[in-house]
Amino acid sequence: MYNEISQLPLVQQSRQGKVRDIYDLGETLLIVSTDRISAFDVVFPTLIPDKGKILNAISVYFFNATKDIVPNHFITANISEYPVELQPFGEYLEERSMLVKKTRVIPFEFIVRGYLSGSAWKEYKKSNTIGGMLIAEEMQESQKFPHPLFTPSTKAENGHDENISYREFMSRMDESLAVYIKDKSLELYSYAHDLLLKKGIILADTKFEFGTIGSEVLLIDELFTPDSSRLWSLEDYEMGKSPKSYDKQFIRDYLENSGWDKQSPPPPLPEEVIEQTRQKYLTILKIITGKEL
């Protein structure tokens, strides 16, 4: 199917990301969310059924909900509005694809952290810093920050992304653009955090990507999905512990205890891990959008 799409005259080039396949249609891109799963910057040989449809639905929901906060690249997820050349692939593309504006990607990931967890918790325990920023107060795992933190990282096509300080990020960017992205990232996080809290979900942290068309800055990629965000159950939240989550953390926790060295080829995931991950993703889809597949 991938090769068939890429052979269309309409498609100038295609690129396979960790979990999404991107097809260049000239002035637009076709983004297809697959059922692949990645963790620790590695793609696993096992698929999570329906995962791509879930990620696509959540991104579409939030791109529509946040377009007044910052413009984004989303055009449509309605197959009937796709170019005629893509119509023969409608059955495959249905519910797992979107047509978007083609931008010049800004080569960073922009992480906003509202709670101390994940790699930030590891860094804090080691050096009392987060994203290179010294944290004066004593904090516990999963503790909420007084104010959300903006912590950019480099975006690696291959290998591992690298966390950098805000000062270093500023040195690599136009200052006004850097400030704009920081402000919009924090505004997006606050909007989604408050919205999800009412639904019984804590948005602990999330990542954004941006691109440009001329002088216009657009939000791109995915938005508030369980692949790009840490989503906790408010009911189970307790400072000092890692709460029940509806995201990839379940996969990460399994891998941390599996004996895999994170260097050798990734192992296939057990059936029970696949199914539990799928159920977590289905649950968060229903909580966020009120809809099921």
Automatic annotation (TrEMBL):
Q: Which GO terms describe its cellular component?
A: cytoplasm
Q: What keywords does the record list, in alphabetical order?
A: ATP-binding, Ligase, Nucleotide-binding, Purine biosynthesis
Query: What reaction is this protein's catalytic activity?
Result: 5-amino-1-(5-phospho-D-ribosyl)imidazole-4-carboxylate + L-aspartate + ATP = (2S)-2-[5-amino-1-(5-phospho-beta-D-ribosyl)imidazole-4-carboxamido]succinate + ADP + phosphate + 2 H(+)
Q: What is its EC number?
A: 6.3.2.6
Q: In which pathway does it act?
A: Purine metabolism; IMP biosynthesis via de novo pathway; 5-amino-1-(5-phospho-D-ribosyl)imidazole-4-carboxamide from 5-amino-1-(5-phospho-D-ribosyl)imidazole-4-carboxylate: step 1/2
Q: What is one Gene Ontology biological process annotated in the Swiss-Prot or TrEMBL record?
A: 'de novo' IMP biosynthetic process
Signal peptide (residue range): none
Instruction: Give a GO molecular function annotation for the protein.
Output: phosphoribosylaminoimidazolesuccinocarboxamide synthase activity
**NCBIfam families xrefs:** PRK13961.1, purC
Give the UniProt family note. Answer: Belongs to the SAICAR synthetase family.
For this protein, the record's PANTHER family field holds:
PHOSPHORIBOSYLAMINOIMIDAZOLE-SUCCINOCARBOXAMIDE SYNTHASE
What is the recorded name of this protein?
Answer: Phosphoribosylaminoimidazole-succinocarboxamide synthase
What species is given as this protein's source? Cloacimonas acidaminovorans (strain Evry)
